[in-house]
Amino acid sequence: MVATEHEDSPDEPEETSNTNESSSETNGFQASCYRFVNGIGSVAATLFEVLIYTFIILTVTVGIIQTLPDRKNNFHQLEWIAVVLFTFEYLVRMVGAGADPEFSHPGKSGMRSRISFLFSFYSIIDLAAILPFYIAYAMPGSWVDDHDEYL
User: DSSP readout, 17-68?
Assistant: First the structure.
């Protein structure tokens, strides 16, 4: 009986520690995502943040240049790269929303933090910047395809 109690005791703390480890890994991954897209903690994160700001300036400049009649269809490769980069950033921000002080509050689950993120002002702006590109690509010849540069 003593051996049985002794054998059961180590199993219970291991199960508890495994649960805590998996939950802390998830929180750690969310925190890593949050830090990465905000340029915190590493050279790669800082470079990514600089890259995002550079592409924002670049895409605004390209948008201005494309208002000229003879430049309307230039820069397609740059647009693809920018949309893929901005989509990646958006998804990483959504994953990291659970660690973002703006969206994570005591008692809120990671999913609720992500929903708060999805309906935030800047998230909607980001979606408005990337969704027309995907809609135009999915529905060639549609109204969105004809006017995606305005959207």
Answer: HHHHHHHHHHHHHHHHHHHHHTT-SSHHHHHHHHHHHHHHHHHHHHHHHTTS
Cβ pair 17, 82 in contact under 8 A: no
Each residue's pLDDT tens digit, 16-66: 334 343 444 457 888 899 999 999 989 999 999 999 999 999 988 988 887
Dihedral Cα 112, 47, 39, 31, nearest 10 deg: 50
What six digits make up the tokens of 50? 């600089």
pTM summary value: 0.72
- C-alpha separations of 11 from 20, 23, 115 in Å: 14, 19, 37
